[in-house]
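$ ./design --mode recover --in tokens.txt
reading tokens...
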């Protein structure tokens, strides 16, 4: 249960509560959801199972695990580069993820202060712009967010990670259920349900299909080293297939429930359903400011968002900390502070990208834009692709069958998907993301 909660916490993040609803809105509701669910089964789940089995078989940090498994299969210890790429991707992602996590914490304070009560759209935008324009405030909440993440990981697997997810993940679910109950009483819940579950296949373009593939892949925290690191702690008697399926179901359920919370609020206030990232930091504060009990429920929403961000942040920090502990024989506390402070320092580049350095642009844009593109569009797809290749083509059938509990129908299906469907799907996402594939 602790493993399922930990990986669910890793998978459930800002992408579920923030990105999934607005991407669904952008691509026509239920038609997108159906393709997304298919991609979870065909791409996300097989690669997640692969990463878990590799982590459990290696029982080390991702870098050492890949070196060990490469040697075990009679290949090369140089496969350690794959583990290293996941760890580095996790570090870089956390450096800017922490900044957005800090936004969530800041908005808890803002809503409690009543700043959004009866505010108009221009007022909400002004609040966002004022906060974003202050590197001191953005940096302060980035520091608070990273400080909590470091504290949890420093306390160890049982005293920190396990205790945190046993509190935060059920807490996240409880908050989501409370908000769902509120959303059901807006008078627009039926409209939200219809939008989410009535397919509009006219909007299902190739662009939408690739977006569904990318969302399915990224939402499960694949390729960041986190799932492999957590797999190292999974008991031998625990079914990887069952655990991965439980995580995928929980992750998908939370994403869909978040949509059912958000869309009725958007419809009730006549707001734009595909507002992009501004859906969370402009559209929803505007909605909460206009509704009865908005301060209470707005606070609950941003506490929910903060919990989701923290559970993901903890999992992104863990692989690098485990590597320092094992490689340099440091205590967890030392390793957590060392790596955490380094990530915090890198994150200052993202903090400044929104204000002081917002006009300094190169390649893809600001420093934050370049970090985001490198990690999400290049490192994660490549990491996931090579995880699938290693599990499906490099590891022998006996090794994978031993970890996945035999050679039954579920194992044979996993093997086909991880060898063919997942690599092809990930490759399409990668080529589209880097601009090498154009589909109409």
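writing sequence...
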């Amino acid at each position: 249960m602790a493993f399922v909660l930990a990986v669910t916490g890793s998978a459930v993040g800002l992408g579920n509560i923030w990105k999934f609803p607005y991407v669904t809105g952008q691509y026509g509701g239920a038609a997108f959801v159906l393709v997304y669910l298919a991609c979870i089964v065909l791409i996300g789940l097989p690669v997640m199972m692969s990463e878990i089995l590799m982590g459990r078989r290696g029982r080390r940090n991702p870098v050492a695990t890949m070196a060990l498994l490469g040697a075990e299969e009679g290949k090369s210890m140089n496969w350690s580069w794959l583990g290293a790429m996941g760890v580095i991707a996790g570090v870089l992602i956390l450096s800017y993820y922490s900044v957005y996590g800090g936004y969530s914490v800041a908005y808890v304070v803002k809503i409690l202060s009543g700043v959004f009560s009866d505010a108009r759209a221009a007022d909400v935008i002004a609040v966002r712009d004022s906060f974003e324009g202050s590197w001191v405030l953005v940096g302060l909440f980035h520091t608070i967010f990273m400080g909590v993440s470091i504290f949890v990981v420093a306390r160890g697997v049982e005293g920190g990670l396990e205790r945190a997810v046993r509190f935060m993940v059920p807490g996240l679910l409880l908050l989501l259920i409370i908000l769902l109950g509120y959303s059901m009483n807006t008078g627009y819940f039926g409209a939200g349900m219809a939008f989410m579950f009535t397919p509009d296949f006219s909007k299902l373009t190739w662009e939408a299909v690739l977006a569904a593939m990318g969302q399915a892949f990224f939402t499960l925290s694949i390729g960041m080293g986190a799932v492999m690191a957590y797999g190292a702690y999974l008991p031998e008697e625990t079914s990887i297939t069952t655990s991965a399926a439980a995580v995928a179901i929980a992750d998908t359920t939370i994403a869909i429930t978040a949509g059912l919370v958000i869309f009725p609020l958007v419809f009730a206030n006549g707001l734009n359903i595909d507002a992009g990232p501004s859906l969370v930091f402009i559209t929803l504060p505007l909605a909460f400011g206009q509704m009865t009990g908005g301060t209470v429920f707005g606070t609950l929403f941003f506490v929910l968002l903060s919990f989701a961000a923290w559970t993901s942040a903890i999992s992104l920090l863990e692989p690098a900390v485990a590597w320092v502990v094992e490689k340099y024989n440091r205590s967890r506390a030392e390793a957590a502070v060392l790596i955490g402070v380094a990530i915090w320092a890198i994150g200052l580049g993202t903090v400044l990208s929104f204000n002081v350095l917002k006009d300094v642009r190169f390649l893809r844009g600001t420093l934050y834009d370049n970090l985001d593109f490198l990690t999400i569009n290049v490192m994660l797809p490549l990491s996931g692709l090579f995880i699938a290749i290693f599990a499906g083509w490099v590891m022998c059938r006996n090794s994978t069958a031993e970890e996945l509990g035999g050679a039954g129908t579920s194992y044979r299906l996993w093997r086909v998907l991880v060898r063919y469907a997942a690599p092809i799907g990930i490759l399409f996402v990668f080529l589209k993301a880097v601009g090498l594939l154009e589909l109409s």
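exit 0
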